[in-house]
Specification:
The complex is a heterodimer. By secondary structure, chain A is mainly alpha-helical. Chain A contains 17 helices and four strands. The chains are: A mainly alpha, B alpha/beta.
Chain lengths: 384, 314
């Protein structure tokens, strides 16, 4: 027990004393999460809109449903006003960026074949104006399309066929482009926080193999073998040290991104920790398997880094808006299952859904660790 | 009392025998020098003894414990100074020693005391807080030794501990070996450097191609090999007829003029050879100004036994 603790402690000390490791493994992920998350979040920051719906006709409920949908909220945050004056007041005060009024006869005119028009009150900011107009415009355009279909007699009545969720989804896809739809139901910064947490957790598993190989390359392995301790305790201690570093790294990324960048990690802390641990153990297993094949620390480092970057890329960790075919290939990576599980935790999905992801991650971990264990002798043998 | 007993130890790598039925007893309190060229099986022997490698057959007992049956008990008795610098560059000198000491079960005040003692012994106590990256090659070698002696082992194995260091550090290490031996440790010392082994060893074993080909004190080895005696004679005069008579004498194996007044003569083992040599000098009226014996070194002994030098490869 004491030897195990000693090994783990000194392993951790040695990792933390390498300045390059601290910079790359602890500071770089925070910087990347901030950089990418901020860039993409700026492009899709929702516009504040004041809206007065004077119409009490058959379309008013549809309009309200669209505006109140949480996915619309990612593009346009609506403050309902009781009158035109209130809309203008809010615009003047600067509490909103844009104003809309849905005319009293909107439903009546529209259903009679008239143009779908809301009265618009642009604000002072061009980008926000554009965003509000595009969002509302997409909705109105969709209504017109549906009306055309109805008039052509190809379907049922407009009221029955207009489904707000479908419209919202279409608007999101068409308008947002690189916005929220690309990242699914999480924000850009959440998306990148999850992707980079997984990528750097994978990196944090690499020192396990490198450290064992370097013991051999630098001659200290002989002295460890000569120590009056079962060798498996020494190996376990070293792997534990790497594992502690990974937990530390995950903790720093999660706490910093949450406190400083406002990333929401959901409310299943225990499951999040479990997902991180499994990802880290996957990485340790993978690094040992690679080390057992290539045999040197330099080659292991190169191959493991390449594999990690490739897996991150294939799962959209670098470019979110990847071709679906590429993303399909990404499903065969550790990152896919780790990121998906973490995203589900962020989304606060049902626990059973999160456990499904964790279960698959656990199976991948088990396979990699069994392979690593079977080939460990190749890594730690003095005379191989 | 026997400290180390090798009993018919064999180590095979595929078909090749790296250690070939080695039987050897090293007594407590010895400084045992193990010599041999690269590939002779020295390191494999050392690794089997230290529990780093399993023997294909046979057994080794250290302090009465079998390496096969009680490997941890054997390891507790041993301090290994590997050929490579087995120290961590990211840890300070003190942390390096403490780390290995903890693996030997040392804790608390005893740990602190032994760490300081070891560093003081190798002359690095004042650099305890420094990292090895700032050390010279000799200082790193000394730290390498400190990491092996902090648990006061009964048997210290030093595998080429002076490779690539300056003469001052080498002397420091050799003095350390003698001191450790005086303090009660048995030492097994391997080296390529003949003079080191000759200087400190109480007994020497010579290995070649996995076998122990010679064993004993230096004197015993010389006698075992039936080696001739080499003399240097400084004369007042040198005559060709005298030299011819010497070269024709059956008990004088070789006669060589090294300078105007000096002869190098190799005698056979008979007790009368020297007497015959002196007679020839007297007959030719040559006065002997100085007579000295050329000491037989282990290098030439090894050459005689194997036909190779100790630094030959393979």
């Amino acid at each position: 027990m004491q030897a195990w603790i000693t090994m783990a402690w000194y392993e951790l000390i040695q990792i933390l004393r390498l300045r390059s490791v601290v910079i790359i493994m602890l500071i770089l992920p925070l910087f990347l999460i901030f950089l990418l998350g901020t860039v993409f979040d700026n492009q899709m920051k929702p516009v504040q809109v004041a809206m007065h719906i004077a119409d009490r006709g058959p379309l008013s409920k549809e309009i309200e449903a669209f505006l109140q949908d949480e996915r619309t909220a990612g593009l346009m945050i609506v403050k309902f006003a009781s009158s035109r004056e209130e809309v203008l007041n809010q615009l003047r005060e600067g509490s909103v960026d844009y104003g809309f009024i849905v005319p009293e006869d909107f439903s009546e005119k529209f259903l009679a074949g008239g143009e779908a028009v809301w009265t618009a009150y642009p604000g002072r900011l061009d980008n926000e104006n554009l965003m509000a107009e595009e969002t509302a415009g997409s909705f109105l355009k969709e209504l017109e399309t549906r009306r055309a279909i109805m008039l052509a007699g190809a379907g049922e009545g407009l009221e029955q066929r207009t489904e707000s969720e479908e419209i919202v989804a279409r608007i999101s896809t068409e308008f947002a482009g690189e916005g929220k739809a690309v990242f699914g139901s999480v924000s850009a910064i959440q998306y990148y926080a999850g992707a980079y947490l997984v990528m750097f957790l994978l990196y944090s598993g690499m020192p396990a193999a490198l450290s064992l190989l370097q013991e051999k390359e630098k001659g200290t392995l002989a002295r460890l073998y000569a120590a009056p301790q079962p060798f498996w305790i020494i190996v376990l201690g070293k792997l534990t040290g790497t594992g502690i570093f990974a937990v530390l790294q995950a903790g720093i990324i999660i706490v910093f991104s949450w406190q400083i960048f406002g990333v929401s990690w959901g409310n299943h802390l225990g499951l999040l920790v479990l997902a991180c641990l499994l990802t880290s153990m996957c990485a340790i297993g993978l690094s040992l398997v690679i080390a057992s094949i290539v045999g040197t620390s330099k080659a292991t480092q190169s191959i493991f880094s390449t594999v990690t970057v490739l897996m991150t890329f294939l799962t959209g960790g670098m470019i979110a808006d990847l071709n679906q075919n590429v993303l399909n290939i990404g499903k065969f990576t550790i990152n896919h299952w780790a990121v998906m599980t973490i995203k589900r935790i962020m989304e606060e999905s049902e626990t059973t859904v999160i456990w499904q992801g964790i279960g698959i991650l656990a199976m991948i971990t088990a396979v990699l660790l069994i392979l690593a264990f079977a080939r460990l002798k190749k890594v730690v043998s003095l005379h191989a | 009392m026997s400290m180390v007993v090798f009993d018919e130890v064999v180590k095979k790598y595929d078909a090749a025998l790296s250690v070939n039925h080695l039987s050897l007893v090293i007594e407590e309190g010895e400084i045992f020098g193990l010599l041999g060229p690269n590939g002779a099986g020295k390191s494999t022997t050392i690794h089997i003894l230290a529990g780093l490698l399993g023997a294909s057959a046979g057994d080794v007992r250290v302090g009465g414990h079998s390496i096969r049956k009680e490997p941890l008990a054997v390891k507790r008795l041993i301090g290994l100074v590997p050929q490579e610098l087995a120290i961590y560059e990211t840890l300070t000198a003190e942390e390096n020693v403490a780390f290995f000491a903890k693996l030997y079960g040392l804790r608390g005040s005893l740990l602190r005391e032994r760490v300081a003692e070891s560093l003081e012994f190798v002359g690095l106590l004042d650099r305890a807080k420094a990292k090895p990256a700032t050390f010279s090659g000799g200082m790193k070698r000394r730290l390498n030794i400190a990491c092996a002696i902090m648990h006061r082992p009964k048997l210290i194995i030093m595998d080429e501990p002076t490779v690539g260091i300056d003469p001052q550090s080498r002397n420091h290490i050799l003095d350390s070996v003698r001191t450790l031996n005086k303090l009660g440790s048995t030492v097994i010392y391997t080296s390529h450097y003949m003079e080191e082994v000759e200087a400190i060893s109480t007994r020497v074993g010579i290995m070649d191609r996995g076998r122990l080909i010679a064993l004993g004190t230096k004197e015993e080895l010389r006698k075992q090999s039936g080696q001739e005696e080499k003399l240097l004679l400084e004369l007042d005069r040198m005559e060709e007829t005298m030299l011819m008579e010497m070269r024709e004498h059956p008990r004088l194996r070789s006669v060589m003029v090294t300078d105007a007044q000096t002869l190098e003569v190799v005698l056979d083992e008979s007790t009368t050879a020297l007497q015959d040599l002196l007679f020839i000098l007297h007959k030719h009226g040559a006065a002997l100004l100085k007579l000295s014996r050329v000491e037989t070194d282990l290098e030439s002994l090894f050459l005689q036994l194997t036909g190779r030098t100790l630094r030959d490869r393979g």
